[in-house]
Task: structure prediction
Amino acid sequence: MIEVRDDAGGALVLAGHPERIVSLVPSLTEAVCRLGGAERLVGVTRYCTEPSAVVRRVTKVGGTKNPDLEQIRSLAPDLVIVNVEENRREDFEALQAAGLSVFVSFPRCVRDVGPLMERFGALLGAPEAGQALSAELWRALADCKAGGRLPRARVFCPIWRNPWMSFNRDTYLDDILRVVGGDNVCAAEVQRYCSVDLEAVAVACPDVILLPDEPYAFKQKDLVWLAPLAQTPAMRHGRVRFIDGKALSWYGPRTAAALRYLREQIAATS
Result:
C-alpha cells in the first residue's frame, strides 16, 4: 500500500506503484520519464512534447482543457496526473467519479517543486531519483542567492497577445522571476492571469521585456505591437529577450536549469 499527498491536500492511496499512467500535465509527463517511468505512460495530451522520443509513441488523449475522458477510462490507468491550472475541475471530478486515482499538482512557487519531485519519486517507486531532482533544485536556489546582489530589474513578461495578457504575484511564473531578480510589473493585478494595457505597462517602466515562445509563440514580427513601450528602459536599451517559455512554466526536472537561464536573461541589463 502506498499513500502520497497531492498538492490539493488529498491522500492518494494505491495498492502499489502505478504501472499504467495517464498524464494531462506536460511538465509532469517529462518528470515521469526523468523518474524512470517512461514505459508506464499509456496516455498523454497533445501538448506533452517532451521527451519527444517517448511521447511520440504514447496514445494522445486530447488537450489539457478538453481531454477525451472516455478514451482515458478505456486505457485503464491506475494513476491520472492533473494540474489545478492546466486542467478543468469538471474533468478531474469526472475522472474521480469513474473510480480512477488522480494526483493533483499545483506548485505555487519554486520552493514547492522540490517536495513535489520527492513525492512523485516515492509514488513511482523511485525515491532516490526524486530526492536527486529536489537536491538539484535546492543547489540552483542556493546558487541564485550566492551569485551576488545584482540590481533588481522591473520585468514585463506577456504570455499572450490580442489581448495582451500577463500574470500577477500569485503565480508560479511570478515567483520564478522574483527568485532570479525580476520584479513583475503586473504583480499587483487582481486576476492571476490578467489582461493588461500596454500604456499602463509603459508607466511601470520595465527594464527588461521577456517574450516567451509559449503559450503564445512570440516572434520578431511581434515587436511592432510593442510600440507603446518605445520609451521604456527595456526598449530604449534593447533589453527585449525572446526566451524559452518552458523555463517559465514547466516546473519539475528543468526548474534548476530554468533558474540559471532566467537569471542570465534578467541580469544582462547593460
